Amino acid sequence: MPKNDHYVIIGNGPAGNNVAAFLRENDKDARITIISDENIPFYYKPGLTRYIAGDLTASELMVKGLSFYREKNIRLRLGQKVDKIDSERKIVFLNHMEEVHYTQLVIASGSRARVLPSMRSYAACLKHITTYNQVMEFKDQIQAANEFFVFGGDLVGFKFINMLRKMNKQVFLLIYPNAFWPFNLTDAMQKTIVKNLSRNGVNVLANDDISQIVENENRYQILTEKGLEKHVDLVFSFNGLIPSVDFAKGCGLDIDHGILVNERMQTNVIDIYACGSCAQIYNPKINSYTTSIGWPNAVAQGEVTAMNLLGDHRVIEPVGRKYFDLEGVKIKTTWWEKVEDV
Questions:
Q1: How far, in Å, are 49, 134, 177, 197 from residue 162 at the CA level?
Q2: What is the pLDDT of residues 128-180, one digit of tens each?
């Protein structure tokens, strides 16, 4: 590769960091820049609930500190939000309109909490913990509060509920079958989850919906369509994640829920790749684009992306566990193949 290459990576999670580390290992001279809208280095997102509970310290949550990027000569730009991409001129525009020029671009921007259209009018009342910044904002409130209302119930939500129970908090869960997007929760799966959660002291509401949320003197009144009324300290929403790709719209990329890529993580636009949970990968076995979740899949996609940036022709394969066990129910971590029950 020419020495004046500038690899720009949008996103500071496992996919983006693995792209950067593998590129530097195999290309000592190229410029490498990671752009992140968060203001801290690479951290372990699955450990956020343990951090809230006090089982992990802030330093233990970090995967790589600033010294790593200095040693590897990788420029890390934190707290920088990407506004748009000009794919013809190969420019990434930051939100204050600074221009970052690239020769090859990797989008590894991850996902953000999904707010259902029916809940947007109550968005100000709903809290999320999908990022470190959100955890820092709500950590003290979570520790001080006693009563919680959780709407939805995705994978992160159930980790959060288990954490609250271990902290002896009272939890009301309105389980929502569509919370597992892009996965489907069947009636049988929901029944099993409700049964097991109830045994563990969680107050589960099923086959209902929120009709109103009212904030009053730092407390919240929840009214449901079936007429139930709950008063709690905090309200959290866990309804799955959606790819953080708004900044990529309008630059010529093919986008469905996420950015569409082939088996080599290439987009339809030359010199732009995408990997991690923001990407939908073409799967020839089922003739469709698929999404994989989980840390191991993101790491593998990052490595394959870097290898192909360097001129290889490597095809992605799924890795890690095929299922998460969720209160007695198996949830697939990948759509990459037709996974049979085991």
A1: 9, 19, 19, 9
A2: 999 999 999 999 999 999 999 999 888 888 889 989 999 999 999 998 877 76
CATH number of 6-110+244-332: 3.50.50.60
How many CB atoms sit inside 10 A of residue 184's CB? 11
User: Any idea which residue has 């820049």 for tokens?
Assistant: 33
Structure confidence by residue, pLDDT tens digits, 200-241: 889 999 889 999 999 988 899 999 999 999 999 999 999 988
Contact between 299 and 147 under an 8 Å Cβ cutoff? The reply is no
Global confidence as pTM? 0.90
DSSP 261-284: E-TTSB-SSTTEEE-GGGEEEEET
Question: Which letter, b or e, does each residue of 254-270 get, where b requires 16 or more Cβ atoms within 10 Å of its Cβ?
Answer: ebeebbbbbbbbbbebe
Q: Say whether pLDDT at 333 is over 90.
A: no
Fold of 114-240: FAD/NAD(P)-binding domain (3.50.50)
Domain ranges of the chain: 6-110+244-332, 114-240
> Of the candidates 43, 34, 133, which has an alpha carbon nearest to the alpha carbon of residue 78?
34
